[in-house]
Specification:
With 243 residues, this protein is of the alpha/beta class. It contains seven helices and ten strands.
């Protein structure tokens, strides 16, 4: 039955080594592989597993101790990959991102909470990913004016943005910047949101948003509905998490 397996997960497991399988039978036909939150996983563990995978389309490495060598391994042999997640990987920095320039088929990319990857370098990478539809990242720069506006990324449909800088929150200026960069977003998720009136108004300027989701905000759904009504705009589906 191993030859028919399409998904395999070691999510949050304490498994230091890959199972001893003859000729990598389990891995050969895998479409999705997850090591997320697995503290025992190393770069060698992942690269060894990848060497067996011939049909891999999705890889989750959230909060593992892997380094940029994993991205090099992907570049060498896994051009079918469409979904990549390395949230919270402190061992991957912005100098490793050029390894992904050839991954023009990526549809979904998650790289939030990577402290050594700047917003500028993320946007440079986006210029090489014309089919990317879902993006999750964390703003490193606290100054909205430093968010570059040289490109628009009209292919992005789901945008998930948070902040890492202390005592700074996603505000009106940042929302306005994001609206210019990602004009065709359908699903917008913002983490760490404290808005004034101008910020609430800015949320109504995304022309195509169908779902708006806010985390860690004192704003209520009722306040948002009033803002959309004030400007005679049909509100999207609204989801608010106060914590």
């Amino acid at each position: 039955h191993t030859r028919k397996m399409k998904r395999f997960s070691l999510f949050s497991c304490e498994v230091p080594d890959m199972p001893d399988l003859p000729d990598g039978a389990l891995w050969k036909n895998l479409r999705h592989l997850s090591f997320a939150y697995n503290k025992a996983v190393t770069t060698d563990t992942v690269t060894r597993a990848l060497s067996y995978c011939e049909c891999l389309e999705g890889l989750d490495l959230d909060y593992t101790a892997v380094t940029g060598e994993v991205l090099l391994q992907l570049t060498a042999s896994h051009h079918r990959l469409t979904h990549l997640n390395f949230s919270g990987c402190r061992g991957i920095d912005e100098d490793d991102l050029p390894c992904l320039y050839t991954y023009t088929q990526l549809v979904s990319l998650r790289l939030p909470h990577c402290p050594y990857i700047s917003t500028n370098r993320i946007f440079t990478l986006l210029g090489y990913l014309p089919h990317l539809q879902a993006l999750t990242f964390t703003l490193i720069e606290p100054d909205p004016e430093k968010i570059p506006l040289q490109h628009q990324f009209c292919n992005i449909r789901r945008l998930d943005v948070g902040c890492t800088f202390p005592q700074k929150w996603i505000n009106c200026a940042i929302v306005t910047r994001l609206q210019v960069l990602f004009p065709d977003v359908l699903w917008l998720v913002l983490h760490g949101c404290i808005f004034d009136v101008a910020g609430i108004i800015a949320l109504t300027t995304f022309p195509r948003v169908q779902q708006l989701e806010l985390f860690a905000t004192p704003i209520t759904v009722e306040v948002l509905l009033r803002a959309f009504d004030m400007y005679n705009k049909r509100p999207p589906r609204l989801v608010v998490h106060s914590h």
